[in-house]
Amino acid sequence: MDNLKGRAAPNPRFDLACPDLPYAVAVEITSHCNLRCQMCPLTVNGTISSLSPGHMVEVHLEDVLALAARVGQVIIAGFGEPFLSPRCLPFLEELDRRKVWTSIATNGTLLTPTLAKRLAELRHLTHINISVDSPDPEIYHRIRGGPLEKALRGIANLMAEIDDPLRVSVSSVLMSESVASLVAFPPVLARACFG
Which of 46, 51, 125, 169 is 20 to 30 A from 191, alpha carbon to alpha carbon? Predict the structure, then answer.
């Protein structure tokens, strides 16, 4: 496998002697989300996109694909849940076809077995980060406004398909109401990842 065992791959097209291109292209493919995280600018109307949420339009995706092919690395993140966009998976597949190193951040709630299988097949998708802010269902719900079980099921679906677990990480926003609960995360994640 040519993805450096899940670690972020160095951008083979980046050249310090030619700094006219960025190291990576950051893309927010949608500003829609299926959760209402209390710290998110979308929830508190802290961004322009929160006032008029939407998916990136096809013409912009084509522009991004052209730039991505030149730059060689894309980071799909932002405030929206990328898998709510109907163009997300085709976009990832096209990036993979063009051999563009890619990483993505998700809340994990939409990672079905079918989606997880298709993501695992993408050779240039080097990193999938799943945001889960507490292993305690009540605290998670207070912070994110959704059920923890859906995120854990998404992690389990992905880990059942992924060839290298180092391609996946779970991150948390450290908050005063969740910090004490984080100590319980390792066994919860172990059950989700390894049954």
Answer: 125
Average pLDDT over residues 106-118: 98
The whole domain housing 67 covers 4-194
Q: Which residues contact 75 (CB under 8 A, 6 or more apart)?
A: 24, 25, 26, 27, 102, 103, 104
Backbone phi, then psi, for 106, in 5-degree steps?
-145, 160
Question: Which tokens go with 184?
Answer: 């319980």
pLDDT at 31: 86
Cβ–Cβ < 8 Å for 104, 154: no
User: What CATH number does the domain containing 49 carry?
Assistant: 3.20.20.70
First-to-last C-alpha distance (Å) of the chain = 25
How many helices (H) and strands (E) are present in the chain, helices listed first?
A: 7, 5
Say whether pLDDT at 78 is over 90.
Answer: no
Q: Describe the strand order of the beta sheet including 168-171 as a list of residue ranges.
A: 25-27, 73-76, 101-106, 125-131, 168-171
